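Records of this kind hold a single protein each, on a pair of labelled lines. Below, a sample record shows both lines together.
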Amino acid sequence: MTKRRGNGEDSIYRDGDRWRGAVSVGYDDKGRRVRKKVSGRTRAEVARKLKEVREAVDTGTVPDDRITVKAFLERWVSVNLPGTVAESTEDDYADMVRLHLVPALGRKKLNKLTVAEVDRLWNAKREAGYAANSRKNMRNVLRRALAQAEREGLVARNVAALSAAPRAAQREGRTLTLDQAKDLLRSVESHRYGGAITIALAYGLRRGEVLGLLWRNLDWEARTLRLTHAVKRIKDRDKNSGRKTRIVLSELKTAKSRRTLVLTPEIVSKLRALHAEQAKARLALGEAWQDHGLIFPSEVGTPTDPDNFSHMFSKLAQRAGLGHWHPHELRHSGASLMLAQGTPLHVVSEILGHAGIAITKDTYGHLIVDDKRAAAEAMSGALFGG
């Protein structure tokens, strides 16, 4: 008499000239048993495949032969990604998936995706003219998405993490010389955004950070100013608004980016004058003024459009005889000038809000010539001096 097979046991049977098998891999969200099916030319081949499935079940990685890279990435963008990054970053990731990853890899089975296929994608993007940083961002997005697939047991390994990382050469950005910086500040002193330009240069602030400075974070007595928010432009998720983007004032996400600036008496004096001028403007506009508590708002009190600020700054730089400059170059210039004045690298890193001193060193380490010369002379004196 044939022994009856239990519900959880494997089954192997012949179907014409093929052997087929099935094994229970658990239950779905409705409590129904889920069975994984395999096939082969011989019974031994099917038995081997069933053993591999059982081992995957035991380790918590059950392959799903049906889900494609496209289906998984679209689900990751809509379900897993929201709330884990800033909205602007979420939009960037979604664009990366839609424009680059899905067109190239979307039709492939998720659990069949290989390191070689991912490497070929990065090479294709390089040949198409995409910069190393762009390719690096694509890899980071795919690696983050596949980490979720790995946690869910949909893939045995993260092939994006195993792929070759594009090497991005560190480019040395332009910096204002000390004389150019002085010329610029003299030229913009009477401009309504002169204070914003001064602070961005003096402390190496990002464009959004200087536009997000708040009066309530300014301690007049202690002469400190706390950075907690930034102004940015993000996609408008309201389909009924008729706008593609909107400007928001959002909190800085990381502890390193939320930092305190120590103000000099000269900058405090400029801020006091600006505070008085803003009070007059607020009274003159009356109800038309939309108060957000910003130190550098628009003419009606709302957050300043970062793009408008960039265009305005470029015009002011040209008027000062410097040619076209971008606000981000104020950040690079500020860091360079701080180092030139002998400010320790770790202090510059904290003022800039870098996640770690290694980032500051990689970006600006080539500027610390005097420290290296002093160290060399000290060693020379110790080894060869009298």
